[in-house]
Write a structure and sequence with these properties.
Helices cover about 65% and strands about 0% of the residues. It folds into two domains: about 120 residues; about 210 residues, no CATH class. With about 375 residues, it is mostly helical. Its main location: membrane. Keywords: Lipid metabolism, Membrane, Oxidoreductase, Transmembrane, Transmembrane helix. One of its GO terms (molecular function) is iron ion binding.
């Protein structure tokens, strides 16, 4: 099994010269994408109590979902067979074919829900599929068209780790949300006296609330982010995020499980405490998902004028830079004026970092990186 995954990884990471049009690489890649998406949706349809995200109930109720699943699997089969015919290396096409076959054996587009014991716990398999495909289709093409580093491949070094981070944060969305919202829930339950303030804030125009949310969360995240750089124990968690040596839309997913909980908890605390409208907060969550991917994306463009107002990829790339002059700079997520105000702004005209990462040796692999913050001091002392 390990050899199979190694072959698949090597095939996906093939040099550009051997994955040109007609080589079977593109048909294999899209076959794998379609088949995997179809499998995730079939699992959510078959075991909704375990693998369906309640927030995606509208998707599951949509009459076009099953025809979509059918189209995904048919497309996966067809492209997998085409890849097997065209390509000398068979790993991508064969894997896509196996995934599509598994989805079909589970019931395919006609799958019926199975009764399961409802433990009250679910894993967001459908959320992973929808989120991954939507974000990937949004950013992967524009990274190919307008890359900052043209030589960087879609399946660059460390892509498998970052994809696994994406999977974990999506599948564990229920647990992450519960833990992140626990402080806000406690405060709201014990601050009935703020009901008037909450009603006033919720009564504001929707757009004004959204702008207030973006500004408020950026202020909170600035100091949260800065603390995770300056406090040694907290840096152990954040170093995992900064250990990425390549920047693209997927690199933003590399974040320690506990940092995700802390970040979302701190961010949601003022929003829920002050009583912003739920639709505003939902819109902000969608916005920040996309914006975070944009900031990490491998996109060229200096955006010198725009960059004075809002954060751009170049602004955030400098935050990840390996250069010493850029250490502990550019903490803001949305508005660079916060960094200028507090003396942490660094954005030299027209210049980009020469590399990314951290000077310390962060281990590879999800498990090792999960344990890294707790072992960091001990390992340094050895």
């Amino acid at each position: 099994m390990a050899n199979w995954f190694d072959s698949l990884e090597r095939d996906l990471q093939s040099p550009l010269a051997v994955r040109r049009l007609g080589s079977g690489w593109f048909s294999g890649f899209f076959a794998l994408l379609l088949s995997t998406t179809g499998l995730c949706l079939v699992m959510a349809l078959r075991w909704p109590d375990w693998f369906a995200t309640p927030e995606l109930a509208a998707l599951h109720a949509w009459g076009g979902l099953r025809p979509l699943v059918h189209a995904l699997l048919i497309g996966g089969y067809a492209l997998a067979l085409l890849s097997l015919l065209l390509r000398t290396r068979k790993a991508i096409g064969a894997t896509a074919l196996i995934v599509a076959l598994l989805a079909t054996l589970l019931g395919g587009a006609e799958v019926q829900p199975r009764e399961t014991h409802d433990w009250g716990v679910f894993f967001g398999v459908d959320f992973f599929a929808v989120n991954m495909v939507a974000t990937g289709l949004m950013f992967a093409p524009i990274e190919r068209l307008f890359p900052h580093r043209a030589q960087q491949r879609l399946f660059r070094q460390e892509w498998r780790e970052d994809l696994f981070y994406y999977l974990i944060s999506s599948m564990m969305v229920q647990l992450i949300t519960f833990l992140a919202l626990a402080p806000s829930s406690f405060i709201n339950a014990n601050t009935a006296g703020l009901a008037g303030v909450r009603a006033m804030i919720a009564g504001q125009p929707w757009l004004l609330q959204f702008l207030e949310v973006v500004l408020l969360t950026d202020f909170v995240q600035y100091w949260f982010h800065r603390a995770f750089h300056r406090v040694p124990f907290l840096w152990g968690f954040h170093a995992v995020h900064h250990s990425a040596r390549s920047m693209d839309w997927l690199a933003g997913a590399r974040m320690h499980f506990f940092e995700i909980i802390a970040l979302r908890g701190v961010t949601s605390l003022p929003l829920l405490t002050f009583g912003f409208s739920p639709s505003v907060m939902q819109a902000y969550i969608g916005f920040v998902y996309i914006y975070s991917s944009l900031l990490h994306a491998n996109l060229r463009g200096d955006f010198n004028h725009l960059g004075r107002i809002v954060a751009t990829p170049r602004f955030h790339h400098w935050h990840h830079a390996i250069e010493e002059v850029a250490v502990d700079k550019n903490f803001a997520i949305h508005f660079p004026f916060l960094d200028r105000l507090f003396g942490t702004h660094h954005l030299p005209d027209g210049a980009w970092p020469t590399g990314y990462g951290v000077p310390e040796q962060v281990p590879q692999g999800y498990r090792a990186q999960f344990l890294y913050p707790f072992r960091r001091k001990r390992d340094a002392a050895l």
